[in-house]
Structures are given as C-alpha cells and as structure tokens.
Amino acid sequence: MILIMSLIGFFSGAIMFSYWLARLKGINLKEIREGNPGAFNLGYAAGLTYGILGASLDFLKGYLPAYYFAKVIGLDDSRIIFLALSPILGHAFSPFLKFKGGKALATTFGVWSALTKFQISFFYAVILGILKYIERKINKNKPSLPEIDALLDLTGFGIIGIILFVLQYSFILQQFWFYNLVLLIFKRIRDIHTLLSLVFKSEQS
C-alpha cells in the first residue's frame, strides 16, 4: 500500500506542467536562464499569466497527494515523511525529462500547505517575500540572478526549520523539513558553486 502511494506521489510530481506549457508556446525552458524547467522560468520566458498557471499546477501536484496521504495514514506516522517527499522527488527527478527535473519550490509549497493547513507555507511565502524585497532594493530592481534566487530559497527554508522548532511542530514534521532541505540544497548545488566562485573572484580582484 505504501509503495503504491509513494509511486502515485512520485509520478504526480513528475508531471512537468511548466515545461510542457512552455513547449506549447514554442519555448524550451532548458534554454532559459539556468535551464530550470519550473514555473519561475516559465513566467520569465512566457509571461506572468503562464508563470502563475505553471506555479499553480506545480503546487497542486504536491498538495493533492500530500493531502491524501495525511488523511489516509495521519501526520503521527513516520511513513508520512517518505510519502510527502515523493511528489517533491518526482518533480526534482522527473523521468519525463531524463530525471533532470526542476528545483521543486512550488511543489514543496504544495506539500507543506497540505501537511500544515497552509501555516508553514504561509510563513515561507512571507519570508521569501521579505528576502526578495531586500534583494531587489540592494540591486536597485535589476533582474535577479538564478544563483541569488537559490540562496534566498535556501535561506528562507532554513528559517522555516527554526520556526518549526520554536512553535513545537511534531518531530516527524521537523524530520521531513530536514530531508526536504537536503533535496532543495542538492537541486541548487550548481547555483551555490557558481555563487561561491563569484564571491571568491571578487575577493581576489
């Protein structure tokens, strides 16, 4: 039963809505910015309407299976950790894109919305909004680099871990946060490496 549910979650997440919406517009997201086939690049390449549509679909493919899993086995069962990760893993390693999926941010939002009744996803959205506002002010509203976006994503999600601990969310959800964080970091390794290289070069010059 758990294996079947995890496969449902994985293949739900593996449906690359944003990538396919872009293809309908004649756009290959693999050729946009850093090549991420997700909703942000869809909005960047095809416009805000398409970006919102892609983000909504990517959100739902995380929300719907996670909501179902939580109803079936509950949040006090440690198996929810693996099940909740499955749609995020599906998006990050989609077999429909040769296991080179997206960065899984919108799908992560969907899963956390289902598990915490939108509480943690709301906190995360507010934190990212604040961080993004500060970044835009510092850069004088210039378009942000993918590497900076990755740093903000990870910083915001790191703060979420503190919130989970301070507000005494269950240890199971805190464990899920940790594995989710590891996955988000893994999908942004190249961005982090590029950012560190730029920092070191600027210090040496």
UniProtKB/TrEMBL annotation:
Q: Which GO terms describe its biological process?
A: phospholipid biosynthetic process
InterPro entries listed in its UniProt record: G3P_acylTferase_PlsY
- Name of protein: Acyl-phosphate glycerol 3-phosphate acyltransferase
Cite a single GO MF annotation: acyl-phosphate glycerol-3-phosphate acyltransferase activity
Pfam families associated with the record: G3P_acyltransf
Stretches that traverse the bilayer: 5-22, 42-60, 80-97, 109-131, 151-171
Sorted UniProt keywords: Acyltransferase, Cell membrane, Lipid biosynthesis, Lipid metabolism, Membrane, Phospholipid biosynthesis, Phospholipid metabolism, Transferase, Transmembrane, Transmembrane helix
What PANTHER family does the annotation carry?
GLYCEROL-3-PHOSPHATE ACYLTRANSFERASE 1 (PTHR30309:SF1), INNER MEMBRANE PROTEIN YGIH (PTHR30309)
State the organism's lineage.
Bacteria, Thermotogati, Thermotogota, Thermotogae, Thermotogales
Q: Carries keyword Transmembrane?
A: yes
